[in-house]
Amino acid sequence: MAKKKHKPRKKRTDSNHTPLDKLSRNGKSLRSPLTTLPGGTQFTSWVNDCIPNILWACILISHLERRECLDLFRSVPINAREKLPETEYKDSNLVHNFLSLLTAKQFDILFEKVLANSKAKDLLSALLLVDCLPDRAHWERVLDAPKPWHWQVLVRAVGICFDHQSQEATDVRWIKNMHIIVMGKVHFTEMFSERIEELRLYPDKGDMRSVRPSIRAMELMTRMFEDPDRERAAGEEPPSYTLPPKHNEQFWKEMVEKTDCDIIEKLSLPVLPTKSIKVEILDLYHAVSNHFDDTLSHTGIDAKHDAAFGLTLYALTLALNSSMGYGHVLAEGRMVLRSIMEAFVFLRYLNFKNDPNLWKKYRNDGSGKTKLAFLKHCEAEELPDFIDLPRMENLVNEDMWLEFQDIELGQWAKSDLRSMATECGVKDVYDKYYDWSSGYTHSQWVCVRDTVFTVCANPLHRFHRIPVVPKMNMPSVIPDACKLLNRMLDELNNLYPSFKPRLKAYTKETVVEPTVEQTTAKESPAA
User: Fold this and answer.
1) N or C: which end of the chain has fewer CB within 10 A?
2) Contact call for residues 135 and 96 (beta carbons, < 8 A)
């Protein structure tokens, strides 16, 4: 039967990130384009900073029919412009900290149409669940007391508007812009007249693929008007008002205190490899061992022969151990894969260099590093439980009495794994298997997070990370381990022909056990 041709994976065309080859290098850092902008980058967050300050609009847009809601939105700046004197409306804004500066009369004029809508008014009672709102006194005066179901109103409002590019969030950002424009806080040249018309008639005019991004960009630039702590430009007159302190962090803290975490992730039981995979790896281990005997020419020290077979058998052992249980779909499976990849690069590099002295250096380096560990443990007051000191002493003296051995503190090839892989033509293997798997070995944060945390499904908690049962359904490392082992067998065959067996069973399906729902979700108003 003819082998199936490997179809190259299609590159993603919908990604919104800069490709690796487009990042600029500065020493040991790869710089993202946004971090290299002149003048530096000042961060502001739609979720952390803005949602708590425009909560009323988020509530309406996430529950009302869109046309109805946009009409209510429009009524607020129109009322301000038409029913208030310029001295009163020019400094107004639709965010909560600005609304707190209004008198009761001014507030009622701005929200006249909103409060006249019974559905909108009923939904807005959810605002009274939040104690830290700067303008709470206004809402408390005009709204009915909230009911328990209003927690769901608040949850949906934050959840729907959480993505700053969503339609609902863009609608909220649009009305923020329009109020500032109508109040005369920003001005445009005649060349932007078409864009202003698109904003005025939003969402019925213009190409939304262009209009919507422009709304978000403008809202981002005008957030400075909402910040009481912002630095003012030289010559800029201070405002005639004093804004209350920012309440965003207080809002999120209050939500954590008043609602519980919500875990909805399914708990998937680990996948057990098929018996054929385990049997094939074990049979191959025996076959390599037999080939060792067949190619053995003497019983003296043979650094090349021992290392070639030793590295292969070591990698087979790691793969066999992973295939015997659930390790291949757990975090430790990634550590095993990284070790197998490193064993392959070492074997490939040694074969590529074809230098008898280098084979000896690899062997002597192992003895020297063992001597170093042995001497350290000899001086230790207490041995770790996993250390077998007599065994270690026997190993370090196996080739030569340790007193005749030097300890090389550097790498045995005076290189590093990446450079070795590049030199011997397997940089592609390094790129595929090193970075992500090494993260698990070195306890890098994202690998830690991937293993022991999940996302809280409560939007009022900002979908934060919470501990969960360790992840047990990661993609299996067995197929990739087998691919690397087959390449190691190619190297072994090249060094000591002829060796034909290869791994094949890994291409078949594994046995998947049923999944169960986690039952650890807490009952709460936000659940």
Assistant:
1) N
2) yes
* Percent of all residues in the chain with a pLDDT value above 90, rounded to a whole number: 71
Kindly write down the DSSP assignment for every residue of 240-253, as one continuous string: SS-PPPP-HHHHHH
- Calculate helix-pair angle for 303-323, 356-379, nearest 10 degrees: 60
Q: Which residues pair with 272 in a beta bridge?
A: 511
Q: Measured between alpha carbons, how far is 103 from 127 in angstroms, rounded to an integer?
A: 19
Tell me: the pLDDT tens digits for 207-216? 999 999 999 9
- pLDDT (average), residues 24-51: 75
Helix (H, G, I), strand (E, B) or coil at 26: strand
- What are the structural domain ranges in the chain? 46-228+242-258, 266-517
Nearest residue to 220 (alpha-carbon basis) of 259, 164, 181, 167: 164
388: Cβ contacts below 8 Å, ≥ 6 apart:
none
Cα–Cα distance for residue pair 357/347, rounded to 1 Å:
14
The pLDDT of 353-373, averaged and rounded, is 94
φ, ψ of residue 87 to 5 degrees: the values are -65, -20
Do 158 and 51 touch, CB atoms closer than 8 A? yes
pLDDT confidence tier of residue 9, bands split at 50, 70 and 90:
low
Of 218, 198, 244, the closest CA to residue 98 belongs to 244
Name the token pair of 464.
Answer: 């934060």
- HSE, CB side, 13 Å, CA atoms: give it for residue 284: 28
As a whole number, mean pLDDT of residues 62-90 equals 93
pTM of the model: 0.80
Cis peptide leading into 270, omega within 30 of 0? no
User: Quick one: average pLDDT of 154-181?
Assistant: 96
Bridge partners (DSSP) of residue 468 are: none
pLDDT of residue 37: 64
What is the β-pairing status of strands 515-517 and 465-467?
Answer: unpaired
CB distance 427 to 416 below 8 Å:
no
Distance, CA of 85 to CA of 102 (rounded, Å): 13
Q: Is 285's pLDDT higher than 80?
A: yes
Average pLDDT over residues 398-411: 90
- The CB density around residue 211, as the number of other CB atoms within 10 Å, is 18
> If DSSP states are collapsed to H, E and C, what string results for 328-375?
HHCHHHHHHHHHHHHHHHHHHHHHHHCCHHHHHHHHHHHHHHHHHHHH
For residue 371, with 0-12 CB atoms within 10 Å meaning exposed, 13-18 middle and 19 or more buried, which class applies? buried
pLDDT of residue 319: 97
User: In whole numbers, what is the pLDDT of the chain averaged over residues?
Assistant: 89
Residue at token pair 């909108």: 120
